[in-house]
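forwarding from the other thread:

> can someone predict this with heme C?

sure thing
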Amino acid sequence: MKAYRHILAAGLLGMIPLAQAQVDPVKVWAAACANCHGTNGHAQPGMEALAGKDKDEMLQKLLDFKAGRKPATLMHQITKGYTDDELRAISAYFAAQKK
Ligand code: HEC
């Protein structure tokens, strides 16, 4: 019986991150960057990592992409899909990830 309780507890704990991902839109937005920049901003060699970068610098780059001030092959399109506030939240999210 005791063993069952452990399994149940582990199951419940395992569900918590899932539940959070559903209510936190920033994680959903950030997941859209993962294809190219790596999960939680941990990029493969050769791709820009986002994790642990300076929040304001990242936001400035994203706003520059969006405004067409920074040359881009892809990011000018991608950033147009987000409001400035959403880009701010995404920058803060990646800045808070461990390198
Ligand atoms: C389809 C692939 C792709 C996706 C998805 C993508 N990026 Fe990018 N990202 C790039 C490429 C390629 C560059 C280099 C600039 C360019 O050519 O557009 C780049 C550059 C950047 C840079 C500038 C890095 C630097 O230091 O110069 C930032 C910041 C960035 N991306 C953030 C994001 C964020 C945030 C998201 C999600 C909202 C995202 N990217 C989604 C491909 C992608």
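The CA atoms of residues 30 and 90 lie 6 Å apart. thats all i got for now
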